[in-house]
Every structure is written in C-alpha cells, then in structure tokens.
Amino acid sequence: MEHRSRKRWPVMASAGILVAMTGLVAYSPTLYRMFCDLTGYGGTVQRSVDGSMPTATSNETVKVLFDANVAPDLPWEFRPEQRSIETKFGVPTKVYYYAKNVSDETVVARATFNVTPYQTAPFFFKIECFCFTEEKLGPGQSARMPLVLYLDEQMLKDKDARNFREVTLSYTFFRQKNLSPQEIEAARNLSKGSDETDERLTTSSTQEFDNDAPRR
C-alpha cells in the first residue's frame, strides 16, 4: 500500500501543476510568465528584445514544426497555415497561423505558447505576436496571424541543444469567461491587429524579437 502511494504522488503532483497552469493562463498571464521564468515549465521563452535583423553564417538547417490547440470550450478554428518549414539557423522566416470564430457571438481568448525540445527554447526567437493578450473575434470573423522566427546559431555550440534538428512551436488558445461589456470592448481585435502587424513586418527594416529563456 505504501509503495502504491509513493507511485501515485508524482502523478497527483503533475495533475495539480496542470490544473494550476490552466488557472494561471485563464486569469493571470503575468503570474504564468513568472512561473515559467522560475521553473522553465513548457519550454516557454521569455522576453529579451533585439531590434537588429540577424544574418546567417552557417549552412546548417533546422526543421520547425507548428502546432495549434484550443481549449474545449472555445468555439474557434485554429491552425497553422504550414505544418513545418526547413530554414537555416540565423535566418528570419515568416509563417502564418489562422483562426476563425465559428460561433454567433463575439468571443475573447488568450493564447500561450511553448517551444520543444525544452533545450532549444533559449535559442528560439520570434516577434511578439498574439500571446498573453486578450484577443477577440466577432461572429464568423477570421484572422491570419503573421509570425517571424529564427533559431540562433549559438544553438549549434550548446552541448544540450546542438544535436537537435527539429523544433516544435505550439500555441494554445483559452477562452476568457465572465467578461464585462467594457472588457470585451477593450480586447484587441485579432483580425485587425494581425493585419496591422503584417503590414509593419512588410514595411519595417528592423524587427523586435523575443527570447528570455535563460541560457546555462
């Protein structure tokens, strides 16, 4: 009996963490970020802005796979427009995600993301996009969300990450519930905001990339 209890404890602890993380995602993106910063949970990259566009000095390539998920109570379609890309280390690459509200009411949601394998997260850079902010779509409204990313060449020198040649970027959208009309109005329009981001990416010669996963 005692042996079975010891085996059951890690499972219960893991389940407790998942429940806690779902609550943090839904109600406090700030606390979620703090948790990930302290624990490295989920391979979540943190923020460190670099305004210059990187350039590649290596011919080594990496495959980036894209994943999209929605919570069960969120009536949205959500998917990457491309399942994977092959790109050189250090070369910024532009991709798109697609979302559509399939309900007959305006719905507000918030996305989180992570990068796996976890060892590669410190070397994964992307522009700030639709994460950790409240985004809304009206009935039947859709959005095409741009994303520019690159893998730092320093990954090739890291003893824990240098052998990986496949990296997965995964997003999950969670519905935001019990919002007042004022809170719904204040949420960012995902369709309009994505179009503005895409235009900025097209016309700007520099971009701000995010990464704050600590390197050992």
Automatic annotation (TrEMBL):
The keyword Metal-binding appears for this protein: no
Compartments where found: Cell inner membrane
GO annotation, biological process: respiratory chain complex IV assembly
InterPro entries per the UniProt record, alphabetical: CtaG/Cox11_dom_sf, Cyt_c_oxidase_assmbl_CtaG
Keywords for the protein's UniProt record, in alphabetical order: Cell inner membrane, Cell membrane, Copper, Membrane, Signal-anchor, Transmembrane, Transmembrane helix
Residue segments, region Disordered: 187-216
Mode of membrane association: Single-pass type II membrane protein
Parts of the chain on the Cytoplasmic side: 1-6
Family to which the UniProt record says this protein belongs: Belongs to the COX11/CtaG family.
Chain's role: Exerts its effect at some terminal stage of cytochrome c oxidase synthesis, probably by being involved in the insertion of the copper B into subunit I.
PANTHER family recorded: CYTOCHROME C OXIDASE ASSEMBLY PROTEIN COX11, MITOCHONDRIAL-RELATED, CYTOCHROME C OXIDASE ASSEMBLY PROTEIN COX11-RELATED
Name of the protein in question: Cytochrome c oxidase assembly protein CtaG
Phylogenetic classification of the source organism: Bacteria, Pseudomonadati, Pseudomonadota, Alphaproteobacteria, Hyphomicrobiales
